[in-house]
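User:
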Amino acid sequence: NSTSVAQEQTTGLAVADEPYAARAGAAILADGGSAADAASAMFFTLSVTYPVAAGLGGGGLCLVRQANGQTHEIDFLAHNAAGGGAFAVPGAVRGISEMQRAYGVLPWQRAVAPAEALAATGFPISQALSVRLADAQNAVRLDAALAAEFLDESGQPKAAGTVVTNPALADTLAAVRLAGADGFYKGAVAGRIVAYATGQGGAIGAAELGAYGATQEAPGLMTVQGLAVTLPGPRTGAGAFAAAMMTRMVQQNGSGQDAAAVADTLARFHIGALPKDFGTTVGSALDANGQAVSCAVTLNAPFGSAHTAQGTGVLLAPAPHGNAGLAGAFLAPMIAADGNDVKLAGAGVGGPNGVAAIGRAVLKAAGGGALGVNADLRSTG
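Assistant: Predicted structure:
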């Protein structure tokens, strides 16, 4: 994935896979927002401008490192419905809400409004989205709402630069802006999600949707050549895999044989064939006060289940069983610091090579190397 960076010299740094999201995060930082505020705004913007990999119907993980060095993890992975079915119970809105409430400084509305405006008034398809749209066009054709937004009259993906809108998603974001997470998990939006899932053979119940709770946990911690590295804790598959991968790469003593580390770690977890695209993306931010946030989110597949809950604009993630469940296992947000100096805040997503790529970046930062070009963030083998 290409990564877009927007920066203000005195206010911090915002990084995302898609340029409109990076700009939204930078604008928050310029307004005095924290890294958590910026990461929240980037997530909601990605849900509009990069729905191949981010959405209100998905889930993910975020790490927060406060200026005093305290670290926190917010887990909000989408999970199987109690009654089974094809669709996951969404966690993203609750998780982002909990993070912004605990670590943000701006009003909640400021995090949601930029995405709402883009969905309502339109945005040009970015080159980043165009590339993944072309790869996932067969999924887009399965859903009337996606097809109306992203396919032209001949049924082909709209070109980069074409302005598209999503009024239904704008209305849902308005409900979230006004009522917080309850605007998604309760009331009219929740009712439409439950009704649609039920009508399509899903089993998301109103009670379990309303009761979804993100968890704040102690993250995992490692020391890599003197750097304090924060990564997901071992309670999740993501944490277990990331820790095993980092341990293996450190054992290789910076040899650069990332392919061997990937193969060995996959074998340890008995993981075989993998899909090409897990529908994942990232957003990271560092503010002027030293707070750092790294988030990795997923729809469990490109454009999720390719089912948009009617009247909401919300793409539902497929239930996390089989390969769809592996998407969450390869989310690897990490923050590396030397004392109070944050050296890196980023994430590896998209499969085991993504985890290796962020591991390689951590090792390079630990060795004193500068991460100045895209090649610094690529895994090698």
